[in-house]
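Submission sheet (multi-component)
Chains listed below:
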Amino acid sequence: MTDAELMNVVKDTLFSVAPDLEGEAIKPEETFRDQFEIDSMDFLNFVIGLHKRTGLEIPEADYSQLQTPADTVAYLRKHWSQASR
Amino acid sequence: MIEFQMPSLGADMDTGTLVEWYKKPGDLLKRGDVIALVETQKGAIEIEVFNDGRLGDIMVNPGQKVPVGAVLATITEPGDARAAALPPEQRAPSSLVETPPASVAVPRIPREPPLPSPPSTQLLEPTSPSASGVRAKVTPAARVRADAAGLDLAVISPGPDGVIGLREVEGARTVRSTPRKSGLDLGEMRKAIAAAMARSHREIPHYWVSQTIDTTALFDWLEAANSKRPVASRLLYAAPLIKAVGLALKETPELNGHYVDDVFKPSNSVHLGIATALRGGGLVAPALHDVDVLDLDVIMAALADLIPRVRAGRLRSSELTDATATFSNLGEGTSESLMPLIYPPQVAIIGCGAAALRPWVVDGAIVAHRLLTVTIAGDHRVSDARRASQFLSRLDRLLQTPEAL
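Outcome: structure written.
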């Protein structure tokens, strides 16, 4: 998986949990909360969505590493060996 | 025969547009059936009936906009012609059977009498704004915001990717903002919120009581519980918080119910309105029913169901009318506290700031603890600050033993 492909995973997951954002441009370095008013329920659904797409079991303690799109890509890359898909 | 009226879905609604009938004349109806879809300032609401019966004549056709209280259809009820298509608590007592049916349907909120045959009936405006003139791809969020700002999408230039997103709308908004009306938009919702809150501020003698609660035990317990749960069944702290608020409200009836026609009617059930923010502004607080008796997993599942429906504008009428108190949780990464206004005809609202690490005194020493400032607004026509303080103390105690929730 290239970083561009991982970013697509992040985008697709975000748009599936917040369909009204579909097609929005994403700023990689800005937090999901700041750019899209993502709340804790959206965020939980985002993590559930990442789990469904990748098979990664993301512990709650790691949520702080998933605050921006770029951080999330980095996290997925780091843990990709454990991903089942 | 019952006259099934356009329901009032809150203090801030005065008209609704009938979008679709789900039943046709002659169909059997059961209490709780969704029989119609109505477009309101809070989105498209599925209207439920509160009686068994059979649908009679349809008086309002899809596309018609009518005031609250206008007769939408008649329902024939087996046996008698007493009860109206309203929740049981809104019905006139059975001792008043001689009251003509038209006035039996006592609206919860006092308002102008319904027009017999509404001359103000208007055709539904299309909900998708000027779609014909738009060539660029538009994101749904951008469409809603452009609509709210009264912007014609045809005059907004798409971004470099050929898509009109929130950024493009914001850019165009600074250039021109001509107000424009349409079906569902955030501008209309803002007016509805303003009307309800102006009424609240005018009519309800508010008081506020605040308490900072140590939520270290709650978050420690939650972290341990979530570490054993797969991601899809993890809990947000809102779930135990809502349960604890429900239990504490159950023990303070002066804070849980409705104030209607100069009388407070406490509620035996706790239906907590969950204030839910919409992207781009606006707020709806649909009821989570019986939160004081639900398991945390059930509350969590109910929240997961409810919040997307708020954002999509798909709520049921009972969810907009049943709340006995409201819960407003600013959430993580936000401000320390809020002083909310009561949503009439309720008599209390509970506001929570962000739970954050702040200084706390334990055994004479200052330590960093996760603190949550909870503020309750109460209605002096019904209760005083002391009662609200008892509520907060009870809430505090409940949150110290989260495993018992």
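Remark: The two ends of chain B are 46 Å apart (CA to CA).
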